[in-house]
Amino acid sequence: MKNRRTWLSFAVLLVGFTAAFAAWHFAWRAPEENALPRPLRAALERNGAFWQSFGNSTASRPNSPPPVDKPLRVNGDIGLEGPVDPATWRLEVIGNDQDPKARRLSLSIEDIKKLPRTESSAEFRCIEGWSEPVAYAGVRFSDFLRLLGMGAKHGAPTFAGPQAAELFPYVALETPDGKYYVSLDMESMLHPQTILAYEMNGKPLGVESGAPLRLIVPVKYGIKSLKRVGKIYFSERRPRDYWAEDGYDWHANL
Ligand SMILES: Nc1nc2c(c(=O)[nH]1)N[C@H]1C(S)=C(S)[C@@H](COP(=O)(O)O)O[C@H]1N2
Ligand SMILES: [Mo]
């Protein structure tokens, strides 16, 4: 009797381990999607969406003023290799990536500086593990959309009522050479501290910090805060994203 129970427990354990091993083996051997086996990518995606649903993209970030005289910490220079001339630099804004006839804008840095200026500060966090308080100034992305009439599927954005129904769900940004590119959910882009910045810590942006214009999106890890923006477009479908293609979590929520 006792013996039989021991054997039964052993058999149950064996079946359990075999099933666990098979599942593990299956997950790792499955075809890849953006550098991750598909089941793991799906789990990562669900996890990111789950945490996003807790209001990550709308929570305000502490506004602690950083030391202005401290040198900026610089990290990441993909898409910043060549020179950039602020006098000839343009920001291309494309109304809808699926529609070649959609409205397009081509803006100079002077055009952008004429838009209302907003100052903000936040803790800037890199997935490598460091974080730094930074102050930054530029145009709030929500003001940018409202004043230029971009981001809505039909006509100009109003930001009234259920936003998801009329605004594109995705915003994409790229460097002028297209070597670094990110995509973000519209909600995070409308956060009041999400800014297209031309100043950091009280000084005009340096070349390594993304001059003449960069994104700062403090509800996300630093990977999303693209430096040297050359192009912005709106999309119904999630656009390509440099680090997500390399296996990272697309949401990059803090
Ligand atoms: N064009 C471009 N933007 C970029 C990167 C990059 O490699 N190229 N790196 C990102 C990463 S990983 C971080 S942490 C921040 C760093 O911003 P900083 O140089 O102002 O500290 O920029 C982001 N924006
Ligand atoms: Mo980073």
Brief digest:
The chain has a single domain (59-246), classed as Sulfite Oxidase, Chain A, domain 2, CATH 3.90.420.10. Helix content is 27%, strand content 22%. It has helices spanning 2-29, 38-52, 109-113, 141-148, 163-166, 186-189, 242-245; strands at 32-33, 36-37, 91-94, 104-107, 118-125, 131-140, 170-174, 181-185, 195-200, 203-204, 214-216, 231-235.
How is this structure best described in words?
- By secondary structure, this protein is of the alpha+beta class.
- 27% of the residues lie in helices and 22% in strands.
- It contains seven helices and twelve strands.
- The chain has helices spanning 2-29, 38-52, 109-113, 141-148, 163-166, 186-189, 242-245; strands at 32-33, 36-37, 91-94, 104-107, 118-125, 131-140, 170-174, 181-185, 195-200, 203-204, 214-216, 231-235.
- It binds the ligand Nc1nc2c(c(=O)[nH]1)N[C@H]1C(S)=C(S)[C@@H](COP(=O)(O)O)O[C@H]1N2 and molybdenum atom.
